[in-house]
Amino acid sequence: MSSLSLQSVGKFYGHITALEDLTLEFPDGRITAIIGPSGCGKSTLLKLCNGLVRPDQGAVRVFAEPLDYRELAPVRRRMGYAVQGTGLFPHLTARDNISMLATLEGWGNDAIEQRLVQLMSLVQLKADELQRYPHQLSGGQQQRVGLCRAMMLRPAILLLDEPFAAIDPITRIDIHEQLLVLLRAEPTTALLVTHDMREALRLADHLVIMDGGRVIHSASKEELLAGMDTQDPDRLLHALLAQREARS
Ligand code: ADP
Questions:
Q1: Is residue 223 a contact partner of residue 64, using CB atoms and an 8 Å limit?
Q2: Could you tell me the pTM of the whole model?
Q3: Ligand 1 pocket check for 3: Cβ under 6 Å
Q4: Ligand 1 lined by 13 (C-beta under 6 Å)
Q5: Cβ(54) to ligand 1 under 6 A?
């Protein structure tokens, strides 16, 4: 069994069905992209995985155990989470935002410094930017700090909610390449929420296509795209979403 899975999960907000009968296994040590139109339930799915949202039906299993909502802290320490809108602590510098958890975990200064240097290079942050507070950084820089914070402890599971949305396209492509190198060196079960099919095709091994709170496809990239025209990613997503209508 994979270290992260959902069984028959449903989540409802009043009369809104955010997620309906989701059963998914995320492949270990791989990047899974969760793609679909706005409002289809991508962020809710990610929040379910670290217990920020509790399912109304079904179960979430993390590290092969049902999530224990009374004791989320130990599990969360092994999961990195980069939220939409960065979620940085405004009163801490970028450096302290990134290193805070490592300090709490008792890492030595040298280990913290080494990891910081590695992550700064990954996201192309400069030393002087680390001294700044979040409000002194651009949206794209804040997002990169958020990504470093999520990755600081080398988590076994990494949850990324649109982590590159505010980053300019050129820098984004560089960061994608660096991220792939790092995740190959530190195998991580990563979930990447995105509405950008190009990004999903570049980064992911496995694709989950969602619409209206349901999973339309969950398959390896090769399997899903066999025989499909991948020249135009937007059209490809459209075609994959349309397959559901053809089937139902
Ligand atoms: P996505 O990330 O794909 O844009 P979300 O997971 O944020 O979608 O939301 C899925 C659906 O659930 C949407 O209809 C959204 O409005 C609704 N929703 C999400 N969170 C809440 C909430 N806290 N209260 C009420 N409705 C919510």
A1: no
A2: 0.92
A3: no
A4: yes
A5: no
Closest to 101 (Cα-Cα) out of 149, 47, 154, 144: 149
In whole angstroms, what is the distance from residue 7 CA to residue 59 CA? Answer: 5
Helix (H) or strand (E) holding 175: helix 169-185
> Is 205 in contact with 31 (CB distance < 8 Å)?
yes
Q: Verify whether ligand 1 is closer than 6 Å to residue 38 (CB atom).
A: yes
Tell me the per-residue pLDDT of 86-136, one tens digit each, with 9 for 90 and over: 789 999 999 999 999 999 999 999 999 999 999 998 888 999 999 999 999
Beta strands in 99-176 (DSSP E): 157-161
User: Could you give the C-alpha distances from 217 to 100, 165, 245, in angstroms and in order?
Assistant: 38, 23, 12
Question: Nearest-CA neighbor of 236 among 23, 35, 31, 32?
Answer: 35
The residue contributing the CA closest to ligand 1 atom 13 is 39
